[in-house]
Design brief:
- The chain has a single domain, classed as Four Helix Bundle (Hemerythrin (Met), subunit A) (Up-down Bundle), CATH 1.20.120.
- The relative contact order is 0.13.
- It is mostly helical and about 220 residues long.
- The protein contains 9 helices and no strands.
Length: about 220
């Protein structure tokens, strides 16, 4: 067995899953069913990821024959082999120092920062009974969903697995559907104020060179 064999460490699966889920929970502070569903999808992704990262390498096991032919001499029992993009691109050296791994760290950090900044704006808007239209909400209507997706994209660059690669597009669809439900609720409550905001600000991908909704727009009571 190689010296860097790092599986069957189920305590690390539990610890890392708990840390990232609690971290996300502290930023999102779910209050509605939609919030809990968004956090639930993210949590399922995190558990699946760390189960293969430290528990059982199912992807390596299923792809062992193909990987052996694709990358001759690859030590399938080495924990570093789980960094599949580095293996497939021929990266030599510590996979944690590869450009893809460094980019993944940036995406993960950026995703959590987006969650944090979004919650700060949303909490203030809810407390003052108005629309959240400043900060990240001035760029996109659903920055918290974008935060979750950015974190997951970062982890896919860092440690891809068959299950998380399959889960990611499903979760994109789930978040799009949650966003539509959320927008119907917001428009029913805010009326024309939210309709105007929706026309001005894109849902997920920021636009450049376009106007944006005003900051601190007051909540209008629905019928």
């Amino acid at each position: 067995m190689p010296t860097d064999y790092g599986y069957d460490l189920w305590w690390l699966v539990i610890l890392n899953s708990a840390v990232f889920i609690i971290f996300a929970f502290s930023f999102v502070r779910p209050r509605t069913k939609l919030d809990w569903r968004a956090l639930g999808g993210f949590s399922a992704f995190i558990v699946a990821l760390f189960t293969e990262m430290y528990g059982f390498p199912l992807t390596i096991y299923l792809l062992s024959g193909w990987l052996g032919n694709r990358v001759p001499g690859l030590d399938l029992l080495s924990h570093n082999t789980g960094h599949l993009w580095q293996d497939l691109t021929g990266w030599q050296g510590d996979p944690h120092l590869s450009p893809l791994h460094l980019l993944s760290n940036v995406l993960i950090a950026a995703g959590f920062m987006l969650l944090y900044l979004s919650w700060q704006v949303l909490f203030a808007a809810q407390r003052e009974h108005r629309l959240a239209t400043s900060g990240p909400y001035a760029k996109v209507r659903h920055p918290q969903y974008m935060g979750f997706l950015t974190i997951m994209a970062g982890f896919l660059l860092q440690w891809p697995t068959l299950l998380t690669l399959l889960m990611f597009p499903v979760l994109v669809i789930v978040y799009l559907r949650l966003a539509r439900k959320e927008e119907r609720m917001m428009e029913a409550e805010f009326g024309e104020a939210y309709a105007a905001y929706r026309r001005e600000v894109p849902g997920f991908v920021p636009r450049s060179g376009r106007g944006r909704a005003g900051t601190g727009q007051k909540l209008q009571e629905g019928p």
